[in-house]
């Protein structure tokens, strides 16, 4: 039995994918793949989650790839075009948990520069009582230290928390830390998982 829920945000509550933006910029799929695998890579993007600003993080990249300067700038300037809405099943689950009196919190790998805008995307975020944001802590999942911060900040033992995340690596690390977990891969499986953990 879990007593609280700790939510990831990206691709659990809101849908985020750089391809949603860059498919508009690159008409050829091969050019799109090349850009995201060699220029604006996820390894590069992790720096934003660690607290490096968009401006700082792109400087070296623009120097290395001046031919892609406009496309690199788009990562910040058109950031919001990477989103394709919320996930209704998660929003409904958050509302149901709130109605049931279950404490809910957020743990996200995210830039501090965009956090406020992201949580403005859904009224469901107002149901979460607090957040741990990687950029503010200079730590990212799956580092176990960020799970320790969440437990301490929110006042719940690891074993009493159900952590919901779409990343297998984050789920594995959370499980090793002692959290109960649900690997979010299918929105339809979310509510049955919450029921199985005694939360609804």
Indicate the topology.
Blueprint: E1 4-7, E2 14-16, H1 18-25, H2 29-38, H3 42-49, H4 54-64, H5 69-77, E3 83-86, H6 88-99, E4 104-108, H7 115-119, E5 131-133, H8 134-137, H9 144-154, E6 161-165, H10 168-177, E7 180-183, H11 190-196
Parallel strand pairs: 1-4, 1-6, 4-5, 6-7
Antiparallel strand pairs: 2-3
Could you explain the architecture of this structure?
The protein is an alpha/beta fold. It folds into 2 domains: 4-15 and 86-196, Rossmann fold, CATH 3.40.50; 16-83. It is built from 11 helices and 7 strands. It has helices spanning 18-25, 29-38, 42-49, 54-64, 69-77, 88-99, 115-119, 134-137, 144-154, 168-177, 190-196; strands at residues 4-7, 14-16, 83-86, 104-108, 131-133, 161-165, 180-183. The strands form 2 sheets. It has a 5-stranded parallel β-sheet with strand order 5-4-1-6-7, sandwiched between helices. A two-stranded antiparallel ribbon has the order 2-3. Helix 7 links the parallel strand 4 and strand 5 (131-133). Helix 4 runs antiparallel to helix 5 (69-77). The protein is globular. The model has no long low-confidence stretch (mean pLDDT 98).
Chain-averaged pLDDT: 98
Uncertain spans, ≥5 residues at pLDDT below 50? none
CATH topology of the largest domain: Rossmann fold
Form type: globular
Number of helices: 11
Helix-and-strand structural type = alpha/beta
- Rg from C-alpha positions? 18 Å
Q: How does CATH name the architecture of the largest domain?
A: 3-Layer(aba) Sandwich
Largest sheet: 5 strands, parallel
Task: Encode the helix/strand succession as letters.
Answer: EEHHHHHEHEHEHHEHEH
What is the class of the largest domain in the CATH system? Answer: Alpha Beta
The end-to-end span amounts to 11 Å
Helix share bin? 40-55%
Count up the domains.
2
So, the CATH homologous superfamily of the largest domain?
HAD superfamily/HAD-like
Output the strand order for the largest sheet: 5-4-1-6-7
- In terms of DSSP E residues, the strand content is 5-15%
**Total DSSP E strands:** 7
């Amino acid at each position: 039995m879990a007593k609280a829920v700790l939510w990831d945000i990206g691709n659990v509550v809101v849908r985020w994918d750089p391809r949603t933006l860059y498919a508009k910029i690159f008409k050829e799929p091969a050019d799109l793949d090349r850009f995201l695998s060699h220029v604006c890579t996820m390894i590069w993007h992790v720096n934003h989650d660690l607290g490096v600003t968009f401006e700082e993080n792109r400087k070296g990249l623009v120097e290395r790839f001046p031919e892609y300067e406009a496309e690199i700038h788009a990562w910040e300037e058109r950031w919001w075009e990477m989103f394709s809405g919320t996930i209704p099943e998660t929003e409904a689950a958050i509302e149901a948990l709130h109605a049931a009196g279950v404490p809910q919190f957020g743990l996200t790998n995210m830039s501090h520069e965009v956090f406020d805008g992201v949580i403005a995307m859904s009224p469901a975020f107002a149901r979460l009582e607090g957040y741990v944001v990687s950029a503010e802590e200079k730590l990212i999942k799956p580092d176990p230290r960020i799970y320790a911060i969440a437990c301490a900040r929110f006042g719940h033992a690891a074993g009493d928390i159900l952590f919901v995340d779409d990343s297998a690596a984050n789920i594995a690390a959370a499980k090793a830390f002692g959290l109960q977990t649900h690997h979010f891969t299918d929105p339809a499986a979310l509510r049955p998982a919450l029921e199985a953990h005694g939360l609804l």
